[in-house]
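sry for the spam today, last one i promise. C-alpha cells for design, 127 residues
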C-alpha cells in the first residue's frame, strides 16, 4: 500500500511538473496523468468541476470540458450535493464553477512553493 510520504515524494512529482506549466498545457498534462494513473496506486488525484444549478458559467465550463467529462477524466460535482458541500467547505470554495485538482482525500493539490495571495500576506490592521 502507498503511504502519504511516498505519494508526496514520488507520485505527486509529475503532478507538480504539470502545475508548473502554463495554461492550457498544465490542464492537458494533468488530464493525461489522471487518465494514465497506475491502477495499483492507492491515492489517485482527480479533476472535479464544481457546479450548481441555474449557473450559466457552469454550463459554459461543462461545454469547454465536455470531452474530458465524457472520458471520465473530469468529474462533475454539484456544490449542493453532500460531496460538493464537503469539498467546498474543506477547501474554502465559495463560487462556481471551479475546476479543482484534488488529492484522494478531496483536498486541493497546489503548486509547491506557491506563495499565498497578497490578501493573506497583508498585515491585519490594529484597532
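last one done:
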Amino acid at each position: 500500500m502507498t503511504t502519504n510520504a511516498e505519494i508526496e515524494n514520488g507520485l505527486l512529482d509529475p503532478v507538480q511538473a504539470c502545475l508548473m506549466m502554463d495554461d492550457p498545457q498544465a490542464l492537458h498534462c494533468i488530464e493525461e496523468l489522471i487518465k494514465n494513473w497506475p491502477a495499483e496506486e492507492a491515492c489517485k488525484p482527480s479533476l472535479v468541476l464544481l457546479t450548481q444549478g441555474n449557473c450559466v458559467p457552469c454550463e459554459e465550463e461543462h461545454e469547454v470540458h465536455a470531452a474530458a467529462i465524457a472520458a471520465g477524466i473530469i468529474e462533475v460535482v454539484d456544490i449542493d450535493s453532500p460531496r460538493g458541500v464537503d469539498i467546498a467547505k474543506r477547501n474554502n470554495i465559495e463560487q462556481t464553477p471551479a475546476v479543482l485538482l484534488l488529492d484522494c482525500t478531496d483536498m486541493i493539490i497546489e503548486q509547491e512553493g506557491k506563495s499565498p495571495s497578497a490578501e493573506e500576506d497583508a498585515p491585519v490592521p490594529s484597532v
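Residues 25-35 form the longest helix (11 residues). ok im logging off now
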